[in-house]
Specification:
This protein is mainly alpha-helical. The chain has eight helices and no strands.
Length: 251
Amino acid sequence: MLATTIAGVFSITAAAIFSFALLSKMVERMVSLSVGIMLSTSLLHALPEAFESDASARSLFATLLAGLLAFFMLEKFAVLRHSHHHEGDGHHHAHGHDKHEAGKSGWMILVGDGLHNFTDGILIAAAFLADPKLGLVTGLAIVAHEIPQEIGDFIVLLNAGFSRTRAYVFNLLCSLMAVLGGLLGYFTLDRASNLIPYVLVFASSGFIYIAVSDLMPQMQRRATVRETIPQLLLIALGVGIVVFLTGAHHD
């Protein structure tokens, strides 16, 4: 419990300090960085880990499809976000409407993040049951890959209109899912461990959906070469950060 709590609080606090100190004035541009982080976390880290397990590839792809459709339906029925309108779209909404609408999209990142943290907690519990030293190493490895992911989450939340305090508090609450996952893993690991690949895939589907359906369309509205080059460079930087911080810890 101590390891899962520290891992969550430390990674979120470190990401918040970096995001708020350096990125808060550049949130719109930093959306590109977040896209690189979220897609590479999902496609280069979480999904490969899931598919390297004993789970059926067909079942995992079905879970990925179900996750994408689930996030689409949640958005469609305005459980997490109403239809998105933007300033200057000719609809003449009341002041603050766009911020309100965008804010609802931020909830999707919290759903995916909570599921990811839940899986991290199970992994930490499994490592401690095998060897306390392995548990400590696993906790440190999870912190290393959580920091860039949390930076991406903060960028999404700030872009969606969350205040700094609100973004930090909700991310901190999501980190408690790691404690819940740790407790579940400790007491029911034999039955719960086979669910880890599916939780990883479902969480990844949320990150992919947000990046592709919400963030990348925002980037496409600024289609000049002058805007496109920084976008591509920041996406590449996001991918590089995840590869650097997670590659050494994957095994």
